[in-house]
Amino acid sequence: MKSSNLVLLIEFDAVIATAIKSFLMEYGYEVTVASDAASAIRLLQIKGIDLILCDLHSLENAKLKIAKHISDADMLRSVVLMLRNSEDVNMCNQLSMNVVKYLTIPFMPNDLLETVRAYFCAVPNGNVISVGNMTFNRRKYQLQTAVGSVELTKNEAVILQNLIDHMGAVVHREVLHAQIDTYGFCNSNRTVDVHVSALRKKLNRIDSNLEILTKRGVGYILRIELT
Hints:
About 35% of the residues lie in helices and about 25% in strands. By secondary structure, the chain is α/β, with parallel strands linked by helices.
C-alpha cells in the first residue's frame, strides 16, 4: 500500500459519511470527510490525498463546481464515484474526472473495501512491486512475503504482471495466451490454465493474501483476499 493511504470522502449525508469513515479506518485507511461544498473544495487543495471517494449526488446542482476542482486536481488522484441508480451513469459521462470505479448504492461493505484496496495495493518501486502482503521482483521473477520466497517461470511472471495491471477486473484467457511463450506446449488456451494453476500453488506456498479467481469460460481475476 501507499504510505499515506489518505482517502477524501465527499459525502453530505452525515450518517453515511460516519459509517464509511469508521469502516475504512478499521482497515488502516486515513479518511477525511468533506460534509459541504466549501470544505470539499478546501480539502481538494491539500497535497497528499491519494483517493477521492464521492457520492455523485453530492455534486448535484451548484455543487457541480466541486467536480471542476476534482478535474483540475493532481492527475495522480483518482476518484471512486458512488451512484444511486443506473441513470447516474449519464451524468458521470459529463464529468471529466479520473474515475477508477463506480459503486451503486446500496453496496456491500466488502465491495467498497475491495475497491479501495485495489487502488492502493500495487505500488511500483523500480523492478519491485508491493502487492498486498507480497513483493514481486519483476526482473528476478521472484515473489516474497514474511513467510518466504518463490521463483516464478517467465510465463508465470508475465501472467501475474497482467493480473496486477488489471487488479479486480477479468483478464481474458486469450489475452494472456497471446503474451506467453507457448514453445513446447500444444497451441491451446489450456496452456494458460496450467501456468495459472502453478502460480496459485506458489502464492499459497508463501501465504500470499492474493487470490486468483476463475471466471469460467472467460479468464481470471486477481484480488486481495479479505480477512
